[in-house]
């Protein structure tokens, strides 16, 4: 026991000498910071291609004829898949140029729709990624984004269809905020448990996920079910006044929510890096002992951070319901909660990085949906690629040894997370 | 050194703080009131509850049915819980506090069953039997966690390892038509993932929670990918043979206990064998002492000539092995088919069982059984046509996990050095 105390004293001294966590924006040149994530993404795509090739029957058939044919089959298979991914995620360049040259407004919209749809897919990722990033910045690992998202969506839906007679400029923000509030509540509980009892947030948020799934399942097949759905778990359509507007007529779903997401990302950046509150939060996140030594309340910080993180996740659910689906069903999320962990780390837990990574993931997912149709490759390949990207981002040494890069002079910023004991 | 630390742990348990004494007492009183006002008052006075004491499909170890007058039973349970709570508030049970909480929890569960099955019949033995079966993946998951964490590695990827193992076991079991080979395949796939976890967290010193998350996402993605691409259209790949029930001669014909514990499939027996081996190995052998010392104080262990890195790899790989057995249980011991995401958080509940059981195999199996029982109640009650929505019953294990983690049962002792990468100086 006494030995531990001595260690603590030494550590505090060390931490005070190291000073406040630096804003890493000014620390490294741009490419240096983006280099590892970009190489990680590239390597992830290469391994994804290998997976496509290995699981393709036509490749095996071609290899049984001759090796050359086998290799051309690999290129063929992977080429078709990735071409479908690209054109349906960004758009067909030829068609875009032609459309811009012509005068048909509809054709222009259609040609750019894949790109706009990618932004639609990115929107919930931005909110969810920010949620995880905010948690990491305060030393918390919020794996509960998925559950917070479901609860947020349920709250937004409920306000969206039960409240009537409000003008749109009140109803829509109200429903959106209800979503944020629901998510915040779902984040508050594990935050409170962590701060007051030391119950680890990783397990508690996962448990809250399962409770949220069961709860929404019950809500959607019971109290919130759509009339005439015959027991199918789906909610009624929300009121017109609660809808987040889409900019273009139907098949194009691009909506205001994307810009709300950017605004929220800006707010989070401002909160984290431009306010004392943010500095305190980050200090608690990187150096809990030093923070306590400086008289900061870790308890309060943990609870506020988890609630805010949950609120962001709730917004992800709300935006999907209010802008895209217009009602809630159980297939609301395609695993945004878990993808957001990868997003936050690839974006270096910085709001700008998170937005960029979200747009990348949204694009990937949008493309993969189409790829599934064209070349019957299950969309879950995106998860595999994401896991690999995450692994490389978390262990940059692997990437460096693959591409023979030199070690940076400074140590990379590491995410700080505590063990089960919650000794923070 | 180890005996010393164990003595300290015991002392700590004996001292019950005054707030905890108060909180526990209040909870026990509330349980009593709940049983009386919610359960007993809503039961008709002449109602009878019939508990069937032999699981279905069993041909040895019969026991006669229990027939209880519902209202009287409930009232007795309520009074007992109230008395325990009042004694706790006035005098306190000291070292027996946890036991008394457990007894009150048991009263609550039993009372709930009596209430729900009033004027109906409920196969209690069948419920217990399926509770044991449901406890298998959770308990094995907890053992897997103990092996990794005692060596100082936090393994939150048990869920992912289990999922991968369940798929591989289904495929290998279907192709070879041999469940043993399926089990072997499941174990190997899980060990492979454990190796990745080991390399990431030991060699590359990646934050262990994050390396675990990598494996969880990877497993979920790859199993869904393969399931959609192959398993769903090719039944040949996804119809493994189940391990059959193997009654243990003699023991299986003991009434009640026989059918529940000794007439199960191989996974249940494996669970008990691993329990005994692990408990003995961890606390009675040099191997166990070394493993634990690496998890508690790697620097000291290194000074004494223990290879910290190698010991940690061993811990992680053994953890993968046990998680592989747990995963194979789903496809080879329970369902007979692989479904996407079929582990449904059992790996994480296993981790909670490990914490609940204070990083001890014996404690972990107790916690695992509790979770298994909570699970079994949910599935049985929906068959009874209970008024409580099945979704709420399904929440029970998750809620219990959170309550347990909140330290209501008392705080445990995590290995001191877990989560910290070891760097030789």
List the helices and strands and how they pair.
The complex is a heterodimer of chains A (424) and B (425).
Chain A (H helix, E strand, L loop, with lengths): L1 H17 L11 H25 L2 H9 L1 H23 L3 H9 L3 H33 L7 H18 L5 H30 L3 H21 L35 H18 L1 H11 L1 H6 L4 H28 L10 H11 L4 H25 L5 H14 L1 H7 L22
Helix pairs in contact in A: 2-4, 2-16, 3-4, 4-15, 5-6, 6-10, 6-13, 6-14, 6-15, 7-8, 7-9, 7-13, 7-14, 8-9, 8-13, 10-11, 14-15, 14-16, 16-17
Chain B lengths: L1 H13 L3 H23 L7 E5 L13 E4 H21 L6 H20 L4 E3 H27 L7 H19 L2 H25 L4 H24 L14 E2 L9 H5 L1 E2 L1 H19 L1 H11 L1 H6 L4 H28 L10 H11 L4 H24 L5 H16 L20
Parallel strand pairs in B: 1-3
Antiparallel strand pairs in B: 1-2, 4-5
Helix pairs in contact in B: 2-3, 2-4, 3-4, 5-10, 5-13, 5-14, 5-15, 6-7, 6-8, 6-13, 6-14, 7-8, 7-13, 10-11, 11-13, 14-15, 14-16, 15-16
3D structure, described in words:
The complex is a heterodimer of chains A (424) and B (425). With 424 residues, chain A is mostly helical. Chain A has a domain at 123-358. Helix content of chain A is 72%, strand content 0%. Chain A has helices spanning 2-18, 30-54, 57-65, 67-89, 93-101, 105-137, 145-162, 168-197, 201-221, 257-274, 276-286, 288-293, 298-325, 336-346, 351-375, 381-394, 396-402. With 425 residues, chain B is mainly alpha-helical. Chain B folds into two domains: 2-123, no CATH class; 132-368, no CATH class. Helix content of chain B is 69%, strand content 4%. Chain B contains 16 helices and five strands. Chain B has a three-stranded mixed β-sheet with strand order 2-1-3. A two-stranded antiparallel sheet of chain B has the order 4-5. In chain B, α2 packs parallel to α4. Chain B is globular. The model of chain B is unreliable at 1-14 (pLDDT under 50). At the A-B interface, α9, α14 and α16 of A face α8, α14 and α16 of B.
